[in-house]
Fold:
Amino acid sequence: MTGVRSATAADYSAFLELNSQVHQIHAKNYPAYFKPAAHVSEAEFNRFISTPDVHILIGHENLKVWGYAFFEVWRQNETPFSHAVTSLYLRQIAVDASCRRGGHGRKLLESVIASAREQKIQKIELDCWAFNQDAISFFRRCGFALMKERLHLDIATT
Structure:
C-alpha cells in the first residue's frame, strides 16, 4: 500500500540514498556551488526528525521508500518594512529515479500542504535552481507561482 508518514531513525539509509540522487543532479549542474557528494550524518538526520518545526515525510509502498519531503516552519518577525509572517519552507523533495513521473511527487506535496493546513499556515515557499527546469515545471503544475528572483554576480569572472 502506498502512503506517506513521518520519518523515523530507521529511515536514515533510505533518506541518504534519495538525497544522493537529488544532490548529484545539483552537483552536475552547478559544481562551483555543490560538493561532488553530500553526506548528512545519522546524528544530524536524527536531530532533524526530533526538532519540532522541522519535518521529514517519507513516501513508501509497503516497505520500499520511494521519496521524501523535508520542510520546516519559518517564522519571520515584523519589521519596519514587512509584516510578521509564518510560512512552511520546503527544503527538499526527492523521488527515486525509478518512480518519477508517476504521481509520487504530487502525493508528497499534497501531504506537505495538508501539514501546512493542520498548522494553520497559509503559505508554502521553496527555492528551485534555475537549471532544474523539471522541478520548476512540476511546482508550477502544482500551483506554485514565482514570488521573487534571486540573482548573483560572480565577480571573479567579471
Observations:
- Residues 12-29 form the longest helix (18 residues).
- The helical segments are 12-29, 42-50, 104-118, 133-141.
- The beta strands are 2-6, 54-61, 64-76, 85-95, 124-126.
